[in-house]
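Sample entry was shown:

___
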Amino acid sequence: MFRPTDRKPATTCSKSTDPTATAQRTAVLCDMRRGYAKRFDSQEKARQNGEAIFRLLDSPRFDRSAPAISVVLTLHNYAAYIQQCLKSLEDSKTAAIPGGIEVVIVNDASTDDSLERAIGAQENSRHPVRIVDKRFNTGLADARNVGLKLARAPYAFILDADNMVFPRALEQLHTTIVNDSSAAVYSMLCRFQGPQSHRDGLLSYFDWDPQMLVERPYIDAMALFDRQQLIEIGGYDNELYKFGWFGWEDYELWLRIAQAKFRVSFLPNVLCLYRHHEKSMSNATNLFDRELVAHLIKKYHALVETYPPKNRILGVDRLRFEEVVRTISEKRKRADVSIHTPGIS
């Protein structure tokens, strides 16, 4: 068993007086986390009081369609990108998809003109389009869950408003998930920064492997899911912001899919474009990796035991992970609960 030693305490959301840039950044994010908590609370109170927490804007053809795929597109202050994203869906080949696709745009209380641009695109779309205009900004995971529940198709493709799909993407993914009877299918992605022509590498290019997944995140959100199965395992975890910051929702979901032993297919074609930003949500999450890993190990301890990782565990360096284990073990001594780190005696 692991024997804890004295270590620096984990980063928490207390007000920091440390003058370093890291401490300042942590303090800012902690304030933002508290803001999300307040908005979640306000949303829940509004729901309990019978107030509307979103409004639906459906295109005329929406009720007349029976799509096979719902593209769940989350949008928050991405007015600069939403039209490009929607154009990629307009250019998509859907003849081989029985019933075609619908687009469910979830506007997570944007403060720019994202909503206006989405409405303008809706009016000219050849696809049935539903816009869900949320009253409260509660983050990516909650927005996706709202979209999944308000979608209608048996399959759901997850898309963020700054990314795009290639014309044959949805057809190929649909054929694969149907033929394989899978719960999910993903493909390779091409990463770009700035103009689409500035492409600088691939993502999601390994086959489905729970062993690799336990070590690190390597699959993006852009994937096609059996919508009902996704809902049955709880959708996206909208509690993660309490432990880290936005950016690991996808990884947590893939871990849950692995733990549920769902069948996942990999299509080794480049079917989507992933926009890389200089300041990503996942980079901010690294400031809270101790809290986040502590949360994940509680949920996926059995999965880690089943697939013992090597150099990295749940996305962090092994030594860093062991430090988290020490911290948790110290807190649980009195409860006589031990935590075993795979490969550590």
Observations:
- Residues 204 and 219 are 5 Å apart (CA to CA).
